[in-house]
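Weekly modeling sync, notes
Attendees: S.R. (lead), two postdocs, one rotation student

Agenda item 3: backlog of single-chain predictions. S.R. asked that every request posted to the team notebook include the full sequence so nobody has to chase files. The rotation student volunteered to paste the first one in as an example of the format we agreed on. Action items at the bottom.

Example entry:
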Amino acid sequence: MQRTEERAGGAGNVALNVRSLGGQTVLIGVTGPDAAAETLRGLLQQRGVECRFVEVEGFPTVTKLRVLSQHQQLIRLDFEDDDLAVPWGSVIGAYRQHIKGTNVVLLSDYAKGSLGCAVELIRLARKAGKPVLVDPKGSDFTRYRGATVITPNWSEFITIVGPCEDEETVEQKARGLCEQLALEALLITRGERGMTLIPHQGERRDLPAHAAEVYDVTGAGDTVIATLATTLAAGLSLPEATALANTAAGLVVAKLGTASVSMAEVIAALHMHPHTASGIVGEDQLMTLVAEARGRGQRIVMTNGCFDILHADHVYYLEAARKLGDRLIVAVNDDASVRRLKGSDRPVNPLPRRMLVLDALTAVDWVVPFPEDTPEHLIARLLPDVLVKRGDYSPDRIAGASLVKAHGGEVVVIDYLEGFSTTELIDSLQRVTLSRAL
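Predicted structure, as returned to the notebook:
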């Protein structure tokens, strides 16, 4: 033996992850009246975690001993008592004292018996208007009925719903589980495949894994649910919180043993991801990018148009729009919608060329196509902080304006530059061509 190290595991690791991310947390759990409990309390309190341990006489505090050599785990020994008679009244009593002053309730189930009262804990939280996140265990998820979100890993998910031969089946069974358990959403952690967020209602979101190197997956689930809880408590939406949780998971698996990540690490990692650069993206990918940008506190600006032949007025307009925030999204009509709006002889330039030229502009961060005549559907999904149009529009006539305003956003109209028009440019070129032909 060259070195020993003591760390908080289980729900203790979850609590430390919350603190590392800047959140305040009260940890309620069951221990024995022993030295291990005092060591655990000390590890947590020195990091700012408030401990409300329920001590049970004759019950040894759950301890895991890991033996490592050259950073590889050789063996793990678990010291625990499977016949725990938990005084659930004491657990619920401690819980009641803190429920009113909390933003989010997190149930970290390690199947040790202390969450046998999960149904009552969830009921009390929802009655108090608090969202409940659960990291589940076991083959019976009915005790989590009424929770807001549960976060099973892939193995846990298929244990409950059965094999899934394709992604359509995954989504179907996940929505069925949400319906059965009255959940708002299911977040499935899938290892190297990242995460899949499937709400009871609404569109699913698939997030790719961000880990550059997988060193140790111990405690990765703790980091995911801790990040999710902390960012939801801070006011982020579930998709935004999930994007940050995904990034945090990629960081923690590069660390040895039960570990935590800081918000500074998460922000630094977001800036390092190649997909946060400018580019031509699809709608679902854009949702993830916007969630991550908002997680960094960035202001999202969005505009749209055909952009058939790019000219000086377009450049002026897009540069002015970009100055209204930190990220500019340009939504572009596809070829079929341009024909419906402008006539059968348009567009002059097909969609790939139009998007390529827009992407080359320094003012533009992301370019996304849309098939409808207006981008109202896309605006409803993105809910930008600023919606911009150019010309003589009145704000109430702009597609999606009411949606943006209803969510606290702003609608801005930027005037045309005199003497520039795509239609006039095309007419001028046609006159020149006709003159030369004559």
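Discussion: group reviewed the output briefly. The first helix runs from residue 11 to 20.
Action items: rotation student to repeat for the remaining queue; S.R. to check formatting next week.
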